[in-house]
Design brief:
Layout: H1 7-20, E1 26-29, H2 33-43, E2 49-53, H3 56-66, E3 70-74, H4 82-92, E4 97-102, H5 108-117, E5 121-124, H6 132-141, E6 146-147, H7 149-158, H8 172-182, H9 187-194, H10 198-211, H11 217-226
Parallel strand pairs: 1-2, 1-3, 3-4, 4-5, 5-6
Length: 236
C-alpha cells in the first residue's frame, strides 16, 4: 500500500497519541525492532515512555519496576507472546491498561485469550494509519475499552454464546449503558449522554456485571455482545 498520501494524517495521529499519553507511564513491547524504534520516537516526546523491549518477560519486569500505567504491545514478540503478556499483566496488575496490536496472521485463540483476559484495547496492525490507535487510546484514557470490529466479529464467530445466565435480563437503561460502554465510552461520557449522574452509571455497571456474571467491564461488554444483548457499534 502506498502511504504517501497519508503522511500528513499519520503526523496528526502521532501528535494526538502524544497528547493522550501525557499523564501515562508507558511500557512498549514489540516483536519488531523497527516498530519498537518508531514507537520510541513517536511516544517519548514528553517522557511518557518509561520502558521498551521485545521480550514478554522483560516487559513484566519493566512494568513492575517503572510502575507503568499502560502497556502497548504487539501479538508477536521475540520471546513470549503479546496475548500471554496481557494475561499476565491483568492477573498481576489489573489497573494497568493494555493495548494489543494484532497482525493479520494472528490466530483466533490468541485474540480470544487477550479478550477474555480483559485486554482494554485491540487494534489491527494493517489499520494503524487509519486512526485506530488514537481512537483506542482515547477510549482507554477515559476508562473505556476498544476492540476492533473485525477482531470482535472473529471472536464472536468462533465462540458462540453459551446459554445465558438466568439473571442475564437487562433493563432498557442497563442495555443503553452497556451499548455505550461497548462503543468505548467512559463512564463520564455515558452519564452525559444519558443525562444521569456518574454514580448512577457506576451503579448500573455493577448491576450489569452481576447479571452477566462478568469479572470486569471488558468482560461484561464481551458477554453482552455474545449474548446479543447489545449490538457491536459501527465505529469499531
Amino acid at each position: 500500500m502506498d502511504y504517501t498520501a497519508l503522511i500528513a494524517q499519520v503526523r496528526q495521529y502521532t501528535q494526538r497519541c502524544s497528547e493522550l499519553l501525557q499523564e501515562e507511564r508507558v511500557v512498549a513491547c514489540m516483536g519488531s525492532r523497527l516498530s519498537l524504534n518508531l514507537c520510541i520516537h513517536c511516544l517519548d516526546r514528553n517522557g511518557q515512555l518509561v520502558g521498551a523491549t521485545t521480550d514478554e518477560f522483560a516487559a513484566l519486569r519493566l512494568i513492575k519496576q517503572k510502575q507503568a500505567t499502560l502497556l502497548v504491545a504487539t501479538d508477536q514478540l521475540e520471546r513470549g507472546s503479546g496475548d500471554d503478556l496481557v494475561s499476565q499483566v491483568k492477573r498481576r496488575w489489573p489497573d494497568v491498561r493494555t493495548l494489543l496490536i494484532v497482525g493479520e496472521r494472528s490466530e483466533t485463540p490468541a485474540v480470544r485469550r487477550a479478550i477474555e483476559a480483559g485486554c482494554d484495547g485491540l487494534c489491527l496492525e494493517h489499520r494503524l494509519g487509519q486512526g485506530t490507535v488514537p481512537q483506542a487510546l482515547s477510549c482507554l484514557a477515559g476508562g473505556g475499552i476498544y476492540i476492533d470490529r473485525t477482531l470482535a466479529s472473529q471472536y464472536l464467530h468462533h465462540h458462540p454464546a453459551p446459554p445465558p445466565p438466568a439473571s442475564a435480563q437487562l433493563s432498557d437503561r442497563e442495555r443503553q449503558v452497556l451499548q455505550l460502554a461497548a462503543a468505548g465510552n467512559p463512564n463520564t461520557a455515558i452519564a452525559a449522554g444519558l443525562f444521569i449522574s456518574l454514580e448512577t452509571v457506576k451503579s448500573h455497571m455493577r448491576t450489569i456485571r452481576q447479571k452477566l456474571e462478568a469479572r470486569d467491564r471488558t468482560h461484561a461488554v464481551v458477554q453482552g455482545l455474545r449474548l446479543g444483548l447489545v449490538d457491536w457499534p459501527d465505529a469499531g
